[in-house]
Amino acid sequence: xxxxxxxxxxxxxxxxxxxxxxxxxxxxxxxxxxxxxxxxxxxxxxxxxxxxxxxxxxxxxxxxxxxxxxxxxxxxxxxxxxxxxxxxxx
Length: 90
Fold this sequence. Notes:
Layout: H1 2-8, E1 12-18, E2 23-29, E3 34-41, H2 44-57, E4 63-66, H3 75-85
Parallel strand pairs: 1-4
Antiparallel strand pairs: 1-2, 2-3
Helix pairs in contact: 2-3
């Protein structure tokens, strides 16, 4: 999934990972090879809101969602929708 996104987009990539307890999100600039913002927590909605705030704070308002092997449902969807509500464009 990451190779497809990196090849087609010049936007910052927002990577999502979920474990049994936590949801993780990172905003990654593949052109520079740097992580711009990251956050993790128990509540996916809170993680989405916080990663949106942190990403917007570094001057990025549009990202492409890298959901990895996860389907767009459950915690991944909650995280993405919460970020949209806080003003981050996917």
